[in-house]
From TrEMBL:
<dbReference type="InterPro" id="IPR013149">
    <property type="entry name" value="ADH-like_C"/>
</dbReference>
<dbReference type="Pfam" id="PF08240">
    <property type="entry name" value="ADH_N"/>
</dbReference>
<dbReference type="InterPro" id="IPR011032">
    <property type="entry name" value="GroES-like_sf"/>
</dbReference>
<dbReference type="GO" id="GO:0016491">
    <property type="term" value="F:oxidoreductase activity"/>
</dbReference>
<protein>
    <submittedName>
        <fullName>NADPH:quinone oxidoreductase family protein</fullName>
        <ecNumber>1.-.-.-</ecNumber>
    </submittedName>
</protein>
<feature type="domain" description="Enoyl reductase (ER)">
    <location>
        <begin position="11"/>
        <end position="322"/>
    </location>
</feature>
<dbReference type="InterPro" id="IPR013154">
    <property type="entry name" value="ADH-like_N"/>
</dbReference>
<dbReference type="InterPro" id="IPR051397">
    <property type="entry name" value="Zn-ADH-like_protein"/>
</dbReference>
<dbReference type="Pfam" id="PF00107">
    <property type="entry name" value="ADH_zinc_N"/>
</dbReference>
<dbReference type="InterPro" id="IPR036291">
    <property type="entry name" value="NAD(P)-bd_dom_sf"/>
</dbReference>
<dbReference type="InterPro" id="IPR002364">
    <property type="entry name" value="Quin_OxRdtase/zeta-crystal_CS"/>
</dbReference>
<dbReference type="InterPro" id="IPR020843">
    <property type="entry name" value="ER"/>
</dbReference>
<keyword id="KW-0560">Oxidoreductase</keyword>
Length: 324
């Protein structure tokens, strides 16, 4: 097999594409021939040594992938060679082959292509858990999505619209805002050129958004929170801007608002039955055409450094996918 190996998590220069021995197959695991793998922002942070997950080098990065089962480990039920699966496995996805715990593998219906499936679990599960579980989003409420052009942002847009919410999508360029409007956003804000607070005041009649979905952090967090509606819910999803904001705690008090952490990966571990129900609902939504991953580009697996460079430059709408 071939894989992208990270010898030192110091950045993209630490990656090398190399032939390596196939990993052993422990009990309870599947060996999967990878057909497609998508990039998530934590993948970039992991190879830079900036993420909370710090694997011991050398390691193969790649959180999310889809492919065909090659071999089934002892004790595994419900899978056989040839089955089509997707998984959010934590590591190993940027390769031609991976071993993953069977409990993490999602069986794919025949109509779910590998490229779309590789871009589905992380972003849609995160956004579903955030909006419908943690925020208890209701029909008619207004949702502000920061960083709306990214993978989790476009997934959140679809999930919020399917739930009957009004969506304000905020992004960093006019081109991204135009694309988000085409994807169904009710309004857009280009925060590179517009004052976020003034735009929100105008778009909500001064009441503010009921739910704020924030995978960005940094200097957008405080002005967004200052604009939140009474009893609003601020969803802390991630820190793609690189800075963890420090919010004045009088803001939740004055607005009667909630600051809500979103950690889908930990939720999946601690509440597996609830997570299985979540994934089943997402598959149903995909089958009904509500949830369709937005794929920016599809590149060969050997072009991972170029894909990472585009991700780091925020030059992506939706997800980047690598194929083998």
């Amino acid at each position: 097999m071939h894989a992208w190996i990270c010898d030192h998590p110091l950045g993209l220069d630490a990656l090398r594409w190399a032939e390596c021995p196939a990993p052993a197959l422990p009990a309870g695991h599947l060996r999967v021939r990878i057909r497609a793998a998508s990039l998530n922002f934590p993948d970039l942070l992991i190879v830079q040594g900036k993420y909370q997950l710090k694997p011991t080098p050398p390691f193969v990065p790649g959180l999310e992938f889809a492919g065909e089962v090659l071999q089934v480990g002892d004790g595994v039920k419900g899978f056989k060679p040839g089955d089509r699966v997707a998984a959010f496995g934590g590591l190993g996805g940027f390769a031609t082959e991976v071993v993953v715990p069977a409990v993490l593998a999602l069986p794919l219906p025949p109509e779910f292509g590998f490229e779309a499936a590789s871009a589905f679990i992380c972003t849609y599960a995160t956004s579903h858990h955030a909006l419908l579980d943690r925020a208890a989003l209701q029909p008619g409420e207004t949702v502000l999505i920061l960083g709306a052009a990214g993978g989790v942002g476009t997934a959140a847009l679809q999930i919020a619209k399917a739930a009957g919410a009004r969506v304000i999508a905020a992004a960093s360029s006019a081109a991204k805002c135009e694309r988000l409007a085409a994807l169904g956003a009710d309004a857009t804000i280009n925060y590179s050129h517009e004052d976020l607070r003034e735009a929100l005041k105008r778009l909500t009649g001064g009441t503010g958004p009921d739910v704020i979905y924030d995978p960005v952090g940094g200097d957008l967090a405080e002005p967004a929170f200052r604009s939140i509606a009474w009893r609003g819910r601020y969803l802390v999803v991630g820190f793609a801007q690189g800075q963890i904001p420090a919010l004045p705690l009088n803001l939740p008090l004055l607005k009667g608002a909630s600051l809500v952490g979103v950690f889908w990966g930990e939720f999946a571990k601690r509440e597996p039955a609830a997570n299985r129900a979540l994934l089943a609902e997402l598959l149903s939504g995909h089958a009904q055409g509500q949830y369709r991953p937005i794929i920016d580009s599809v590149l060969p697996m050997t072009e991972l450094p170029a894909a990472f460079a585009r991700l780091a430059a925020r030059d992506v709408v939706g997800k980047l996918v690598l194929t083998t």
